[in-house]
């Protein structure tokens, strides 16, 4: 395990190739192999593993292994894997002595490539310092429930879940606990090898009085004092929880390595006395110590999270908090942030870390040599401005519908949508609610769905639910109409652009027989039936929303027939409206399990939560 910062994490797995991600402190070339679990015979060999240096002590590797011989990897059976380094002419295993990632009795971690999806897991919204909503629920990180499921079913290829989808807000870059930021600053500096400089807040003035270049070293900013550094006035950032906002590439990368349970990123959380000199004098000691206790409880489960990620295929798509709250809220937001050198760089830093730790493994072919070189060249330059920095910013701000979105070629296929970087001005103008996908992004979606066999089923991953709750969306529409800011309302639903999404699906020559939509984002979980209608066609839809894994529910209540979360209370009920019956609504932190029938149609979802006494709470919805 020496030298491993984070991982391994199983990423894209197909009968023709397996991709495994790992981050290390040194630059040794790594390789990988796949073995048959039953015989331990090598059935796959390394084929073009890529290593990228992103800091003095930070290397990311995508291990790419292909079948040995002419036969593809076996499906519906357990395959094991190892990662090795070449040393003195021989291979040294990195994983053979790593007991933390192995289940009882297993010599190595393992996964399954399913011929048909039977059971998958999905969840979203994971904030490390989130408190317990109710003492009876506890504050467990529910992502670790996936580890419990695998521990019980590892050896049964037909029973164990074969895929984990993380559908947004894998990190909270804006809302960071003080003790955690203290750790991330130190770890980020170690990863990159220097204390990164963030550029000025606003561009140089063209008038007679030049704008001061107020660039600064992020590590020198006191804890709980980053709000003014990213003020809405000068940078456009609208998060209301940015006192400890991440700024640098190193900090963003350190957050991923930490929350994935990396052995080289274990949180070093310091008591108040050890950091008091680095804290904003107006900050509360009680707040710091409360966050410290919440973080310690979260961190206690990171070993289970690491083992889960090492033993199941993992795909993930970003949402706003992976960058900042309200990221690309509307064109006005984008323009204001992009005009600020500091705002522009912070978004670019976030997306660079997202590429390294989330997106690369989803679809490696989407990121060519030029992309990787531009990113690595800037990070190696240690310059906060100049040619390499400008190229870095420009590339990561590009709007490309096929860069971050991806398709998983399972049966049924899963199409993950980018609803953040390719948005379109809504019907009420650039300062109001947007359409979440522009025509180019919708055309990409149509191209992916055109590959689905006629009469077959499909899944979409949309961070924001396509079929939302009437009570919420009606409230947002009302307050937007009377002039309340979309940022204040978190008004980023599909309501504005749903007709275009519906048309894109219903206009397909042979649309899927049904579509299951997997979503997160909203901090409550629900299911509902709907349909995409048009051109004389109707495609049945099942909205499956799982949120949050570890966060607080919204403090909302309604007196209408729509039953929603009432100030964090646990409710499982039916929302009555014209979208169809059967909406289950719950606020408890959970991980969702989705089962499919023999034809690839989602049967519903089970919301799983581990309670403080070790028992498991379940809310079940079957179509």
Report on this model:
The chain has 623 residues and is an alpha+beta fold. 25% of the residues lie in helices and 23% in strands. It is built from 15 helices and 24 strands. The strands form 4 sheets. Strands 1, 2, 3, 4, 5, 6, 7, 8 and 9 form a 9-stranded antiparallel beta sheet that branches.
Secondary structure elements and pairings:
Blueprint: E1 4-14, E2 17-24, E3 30-36, E4 42-46, E5 50-55, E6 58-67, E7 78-87, E8 90-93, E9 110-112, E10 119-123, H1 145-153, E11 163-166, H2 178-192, E12 197-198, E13 216-217, H3 232-235, H4 249-259, H5 272-275, H6 285-299, H7 302-309, E14 313-316, H8 331-339, H9 341-359, H10 369-381, H11 387-396, E15 406-408, E16 414-416, H12 439-449, E17 457-461, H13 470-481, H14 486-489, H15 498-506, E18 514-519, E19 525-534, E20 537-545, E21 584-586, E22 591-596, E23 602-610, E24 616-622
Parallel strand pairs: 10-11, 11-14, 16-17, 17-18, 18-20
Antiparallel strand pairs: 1-2, 2-6, 3-4, 3-7, 4-6, 5-6, 7-8, 7-9, 10-22, 12-13, 15-16, 19-20, 19-21, 22-23, 23-24
Helix pairs in contact: 1-7, 2-4, 4-9, 8-9, 9-11, 10-11, 12-15
Features:
623 residues, 7-stranded mixed β-sheet, alpha+beta, 9-stranded antiparallel β-sheet
